[in-house]
Design goal:
- This protein has 361 residues and is an alpha/beta fold.
- It folds into 2 domains: 117 residues, Copper amine oxidase-like, N-terminal domain (Copper Amine Oxidase, Chain A, domain 1, 2-Layer Sandwich), CATH 3.30.457.10; 236 residues, 3-Layer(aba) Sandwich (Aminopeptidase), CATH 3.40.630.
- 37% of the residues lie in helices and 26% in strands.
- It contains 10 helices and 17 strands.
- A 6-stranded mixed sheet has the order 1-7-6-5-4-3, with helices on both faces. A 6-stranded mixed sheet has the order 13-10-14-17-15-16, sandwiched between helices.
- Helix 4 crosses helix 9, helix 7 packs antiparallel against helix 9 and helix 8 packs across helix 9.
Length: 361
Amino acid sequence: MRRFHRAAVLFLLFLLGAGNTYTQTDASSGRHTLSLNEAMDQLDGELLWDPLFQSGIITANKHQASFQAGAAGEDALILYDNATLLTLPSPYTEGGELRFPEAFIAALRGNIEESLQREEPRFSIAAIVVDPGHGGKDGGASGNLTINGKKVQILEKDITLKVSKELFSRLQKKFPGKQLMLTRSGDTYPSLEDRVDKAHAIPLKENEAVIFISIHANASFNKQARGYEVWYLSPEYRRDLIDPKAKTGVEEIASIYNDMLEEQFTTESVMMAQSILKHFKGTFGDSLPSRGIKAEEWFVVRKARMPSVLIELGFVSNEKDAELMTGASGQKLFVDAIYNGIIEFVERFEKSGGFTEVANR
């Protein structure tokens, strides 16, 4: 209940004359009232209510209005955003229910809209690029899986395409208003430049961002090596992080990292990697090891436009991992983990208006 006590104290301070502006509203216009549900629907808000003190805080679009219920037909002082006093028809209780004069809700909605117009546009994720690694003439890493007593070759390019297409489909349903892109939708080979150019070519308005998720599978000479990992790369380590002479398809990964929009690897990339890794752990538990986030340090570049990560699902060279990555139930788990990680990241990004923007204010 401390929040309400604090609001009450602030309310009294402003009543004593703290130099804030007052907005007058005709109390007679408050004759028509709304129920709590109707009022919150109109504001797209929520109410925190203290029945003991008959006080409440309405929150809508990150703005607040603190009030104390009065009598029907009376005016009341409303503390808006802890800075401005508004004189509006008072909310009141009737038959144990809270009623809101229409004029109160209309005036509050008007103040919120005016505040939003004055605020700087907030960053949002306008587009999501899903990049299935390899393809066409480039099969990527390969391994063997025993199915019905026969050894079958599995290719990274097939795994990444199936997982990416299902992820893409689910993201389309979740975000119908965003631009969704697959860098390849079949067994084709877009070059590394093509993949990055497609991401660069997405039209963005001011304060819009695009995120890039590249999906791969790992391989190792050590057949016991297994598990998932999520990469982001800071500019300081771009040249030394991966050995370009390795023989397991890592050459392409190194090139992707070097071409992923240069200085765009930022705090957002780290936070997206963390969200995805968290949901991998929640989805697979102890059944699939986590190899962590592959980065040497946190590195922040101001006003980054493209948070980017590269996900290694597992090892095609390990039979347990290979079974997970090729089976329908296992692929669904991979999609679930990546999907939920992206959703969490996008919601946090848009709620904060862009992490680096907030940090730099």
